[in-house]
Amino acid sequence: MKYVIMRKIIFALFLFVLGTIKLSAQSQIKGNIIDSENKAPIAYANVSLNKINGTTSNSKGEFIFSNLKSGYYILSVSCVGYKLLQQEIILDNSEVKTIEIKLVASNCIVEEVVISATKTENFINQVPTRINLISPRQIKSIPAQSIDDLLANIPGINVNKSFGIYSHSSTVTMRGLNGEEQGRVLAMIDGIPINKSDGGSVNWNLLNPAQIDRIEVIKGPGSSLYGGNAMGGAINIITKKSSESFAGKASIDYGTYNTMRGQLNLNGRLNKSQDKSFYWNLNGFYRQSDGYITASEADQRANPYIVKSDLNELGAGAQLGYEFNKNNNVELNLLYYDDDRGAGEEVYQTQGNNREHDTYCARVKYSGNKNDLKWNLNLFYLNEDYKRTSEWIKTDYTYYKVLSKRIDLGFLSSVAYKFKQQTIIGGIDLKQGAVNARDVYYTSTDMVRNKGKMNTLGIFVQDEISLLNSKLKLVAGLRFDYANFFDGSFEIEDPTSETNFMIKYHKKKLETDNWNAFSPKMSIQYNFNTTHRVYINYARGFRPGVLDDMSRSGRIKGGFKVSNQHLQPEYLNNFEIGSDIKIQNKLRTSISAYYSIGNDFMYYVNTGDSIELSYGARPIIKASNISKVAIYGFEAEINYVLTPKIILNANYAYAHSQIKDYKPQDVNAPNLTNKYLTNVPNHSASLSASWQNKIVNTSLFIRYIGDQWVNDLNEYDEMVENDKYPDYTTLDLKLSKEIKTMFLNLSIQNIFDKTFYNNKGAVSPGRFITLELGVKF
Amino acid sequence: MDIYKSTNMKKYFLISFMLLLVACTKDELSKTNPFILLQTGDQFTNNGAYVPIGGKIKFGISAIGDGAAITNLTIKRITNNEEVIEEDLGMYVKEEELDKIFTFNKGSSEKEIWEFSIMNLHRDTASVRTVVYKGDGSAYGPINYYPSITIAYQSSKSFPRYLDLNTGKAYNKQTIAGKEGTIDLVGYYYLCSGKSSPTLSCPGYKTARIYHPEISNWAVQNTVLYDYKTADENLITAEDFDKSQNDSLMISSFIPDKTSSTCKFSSTGKIIPFKTDKNKYGLIKVIRADESETGSIELAIKIQK
């Protein structure tokens, strides 16, 4: 039945795509960007037309703008390490203009165009908030095994991943928010949210880093545009688009723990020279690894069934786009991902304890513009079939599976209108999140089911105003979200001692509830000149409760969790001030300071009742909106373009996160007032150097992560043998060499082989080396 | 538009669409027929037998999983008043036949229906029943009583740390050699989610081996089941414990379907029913439980002979 519905949705999307394809003839600008000295093509340069249309050059330095009207245009081309180039172009009707752009090397900093912070294109220094851009050049230089690795060197970003590529989940948070809660930061692929409504989690393995063009990280609340989850910030992963007739890339890599990966990308563009154009991209990767023993030494001694945590994963994607009729574009993206990650224990089952995420994602985007009006419509469908196998022997054998179907789908829209010095953008978002999960026991008769859905309607409007000859910029926005929880149930079938302790929570129909949230934003920026800006902003963000907390009861660390259908959103009010100064166009310093007050933060709290679990009475706990949190901190970053080929970066972030008020529901429960948030480093810093040269391109990253509280009580933890995780420093290196169409990459993460532990005493993978050999065609 | 190109484009979409549908197939397990029977003969309690209260009941079962591993065996005692799960065992018996013998004690009901069910990896089930009636008289058995035994937590060096519940003898690291297979009980102390937790456990429990890592090297690691409902709800008083002269209280106070696995929080004053690997019932009275990992725990123990 579920698959029938899925097929219907896919079929509807399919018909939508076919139905919207129309054709007509328009003008075109295409070009080739090269280095003025050595004539080498310049890849991933930013190219914009009248600051409305934007693209990047491909690996051969080529770019194309299709479906243009006749008229006068200003073409801007920028790239790190080169001087900005602007060129006037007059285009006749149905004309195809081919130009060659020669960029002159410069050891100056070039501002790049970003879109995520305002949903409109702006130079990064013209958005009155803190944005970090991971450019195509940086993506090539970072020794990353997955997307979250790319984010780890950004100031204030906290990547929590215990087992490297073997981690079944990774959490990326920012600015002092708890390092175990992904739901407080929104993640998107091409503007489409990928946080699951079930738990707020993000599968950072979903995309291969090779598919990514750039990543925009917006610090601070982004709920005024994006709604829920964007409470602490938003991360938009922008994938590559094809601009060549035909291109491809294939590679294999081999590394530590017998890790092997193959990657293939084929892309092309049909009718490249005509007004209408069909582009496509097919990509896939497969990776397997023997893995390593993640269990602590004590666990290894106590448990004879410990095995290596291994890995098998497969990803495939398809992008089909069509540009037609006056700046209109429709694009279909399909994504498939399937993994099997061992959890390090195997008794009788072939795969042992493991986790799988079978993911299907479909996105349809229609965007266009006419005169000063631009619109963007998106349909998306994200299905994750999460499967967890657990088996162990204590007194007897226990074997059960968790099968959870998590679906998020929706319609996202925005319309922008530019007039005089203003751009007004508004839109409506409709989203539904659903979970339908069951725990199936094979060594007893029990079966536990939970399900629930949440519908969300969001309406937003934002105004960008430039005053005083663009010296002053104001951005004001407001979003309203309304959501309701419904169709929830929690059922236990054929209970035995495995589940009979929770039979009182069996409910065929859980209560429904609804909530709404207002998310305002106000930002002001003043440009003293082209090299110095200062901004202040206020924004409010929220994070909704997750379906897992609203519909599922069961054992969790510290007790027994009962579902709470009446969870309200938690809020973060953020005040921020920041400034950027460029010195001689070679050095840029960026400083931001923020103060955030979090209200109604969700915490698992004791209800005062207890329940008999297998080892005695344990507290019954419930996710509740009970705490007030104060977070303050600052970030400082220095970028220095020593020469066009050598770029240096240093950054430091400080975060202080403390619970200021906590209302336990049980007088005997611990009061967390004045305790610090867990998994948040007070201090973190990064140093990096990237050197492009004729022999071998070299990048070096040194990252320091300060100590972090292990548990909510800020008390001694027997597994970690401390109240804090100790601080650590890692050094990563990447060496790259291209010879004609061949390329070779050597990535070394954690050169010093630093080992660190999580709160279960499990160990990190240590030094991780991969060597990649590939060919471009 | 070129019709040929349009047709090609539709093909691309169609192929993508078909690939997606193919990927959406479900795993289905076929129906199997596991089989279970009760063994008969003089050594077993047969259908319709009369057994005095407290007397031994012995069953033998044989089962096959029909090509799928047997993963569960459940034994229920059904009386007029209630249905009690006496055994709920997870297992993985893949190809060979399952043969297992169980002993219980006759309860106070006139008629007991005993139901034996197995489940295989496909979650297909089979069951068989037998009836046992109450015979004349009583057959409660004698007990051993050990009024004071002190064992050490993980970081204490003052007391022995491994206890044989049958004999009441405790051993330390130096004296344990050759006796490992007799050990039923060890103690340790830790903070569980901030809560002080003096704990009794057994060599077969994984966490116990973390606190007493030398146990990992033992060839035999016995397990003991503790009843937590009786203990946590204080259903037996210290006076009940002191008065008991035979195994009646030990049998009746151990409630199998409420049984924990293999460890128990054991604060001072608690009376904890238990059942050993060798199916012996007993009671522990916690006389004193220190709240420090360098401390110890003092126990009084009564156990079936």
- Helix count of chain A? 6
What proportion of the residues of chain B is helical, as a percent range?
A: 10-25%
Please tell me the overall pLDDT of chain B. 85
Distance between the termini of chain A: 44 Å
What is the domain tally of chain B?
2
Please state the second-level CATH architecture of the largest domain in chain A.
Answer: Beta Barrel
Q: What is the number of beta strands of chain A? A: 42
* Lateral arrangement of strands in the main beta sheet of chain B: 2-8-7-4-5
Number of helices of chain B: 5
Main sheet overview of chain A: 22 strands, antiparallel, barrel
CA-based gyration radius of chain A: 26 Å
Fourth-level CATH superfamily of the largest domain in chain A: TonB-dependent receptor, beta-barrel domain
Defining traits:
heterodimer, A: 2 domains, 22-stranded antiparallel beta barrel, five-stranded mixed sheet, 6 helices, 42 strands, B: mainly beta, Immunoglobulin-like, 2 domains, 5 helices
Written description of the protein model:
The complex is a heterodimer of chains A (777) and B (305). Chain A has 6 helices and 42 strands. Chain A is mostly beta strands. Chain A has 2 domains: 1-106, Immunoglobulin-like (Sandwich); 238-776, Beta Barrel (Maltoporin, Chain A). In chain A, the strands form 7 sheets. Chain A has a 22-stranded antiparallel β-barrel. A 5-stranded mixed beta sheet of chain A has the order 10-15-16-13-14. Chain A has a 4-stranded antiparallel beta sheet with strand order 3-2-5-6, with no helix packed on it. The radius of gyration of chain A is 26 Å and the shape is globular. Residues 9-25 of chain A have low confidence and may be disordered. Chain B has 2 domains: 35-138, Sandwich (Immunoglobulin-like), CATH 2.60.40.650; 143-304, no CATH class. Chain B contains 5 helices and 18 strands. The model of chain B is unreliable at 1-5 and 21-28 (pLDDT under 50). With 305 residues, chain B is mainly β. The longest helix of chain B has 20 residues, at 3-22. Chain B has a 5-stranded mixed beta sheet, with no helix packed on it. In chain B, strands 9-18-17-16-14 form a 5-stranded antiparallel beta sheet. Chain B has helices at residues 3-22, 206-211, 228-232, 238-243, 248-253, and strands at residues 35-38, 49-53, 56-64, 70-78, 83-93, 98-105, 111-120, 125-138, 143-152, 162-164, 169-171, 186-192, 195-201, 224-226, 264-265, 271-276, 281-289, 296-304.
